Amino acid sequence: MTQKNYIPDGYDRIKVVGDMLSFLTTDFEPKANVVLFQRDISGDFDRLAALMAVHYGLEEEEIFIKYSERDEILAFRETLDDDLKPCVDLILNDMEFFYSSGIKTHMRLLTNYKIHQGTYEFHVDGLMQDFDRYMTCYTEPVTQFIRNEDVVQVNGHDVICKPDAEIFGFCVGDIWKSRVRNKAKNSADTFLEKMLRVKEGRAFVHRAQKSDKPRLMVVGDKRV
Fold first, then answer.
1. Angle formed by the axes of helices 45-56 and 85-100, to 10°?
2. Which backbone phi and psi does 103 adopt, to 5 degrees?
3. Which one of 17-31, 58-72, 194-208 scores highest in mean pLDDT?
4. What CATH number does residue 92 fall under?
5. Which are the contacts of 37, defined by CB distance < 8 A and separation ≥ 6?
6. Domains: count for the chain
7. Average pLDDT value for residue range 28-51
8. Mean pLDDT lowest among 60-64, 80-84, 105-109
9. Which range marks the domain in which residue 129 is found?
């Protein structure tokens, strides 16, 4: 597979919006599985993530801080030099933005998954669930994805894709929401979905990338 730069030209599965309000109010219909707000951020988030890893004792593979526990992030902010405090403020503002929009929100600081190795393979989220996932990454590497026309089969979380599928990816600072709606239907609907290849045409097929450095992100889920 070949790594491509950013998102495909004219790709109707991704709706690109110009501001935060449009990001919240834009729906996926008729065909999209992602709504994307492209955003540049400034600051040394790599250094921030490294300091967070020491502060929180990132010996396991993930630190998970919910919105209700954001005082922990505020306390950490007070230990920083002034040049890194705006980076923390951006993270807290993003968490507030998600949470105030009815999204269950948390910050993640993580290294490579040891248990969930499937995260590094192309897959779909939310088996037998209905929700939209909101996400922004402050450090590289950022989520990669493939176009739906390169998806051969979706079976549960697992995906088979064309071996020559082009790989695309979001950028640091981008905010996106992905359509994760796989709730079980009746047998007739399930049969029609298989015949019409609904999941192959609509699922957001993506993967994480491995990194030796701590990765920092805010993630949220909103039930539908």
1. 80
2. -105, 130
3. 17-31
4. 2.60.120
5. 16, 17, 18, 19, 20, 22, 23, 174, 175, 176
6. 1
7. 95
8. 60-64
9. 2-223
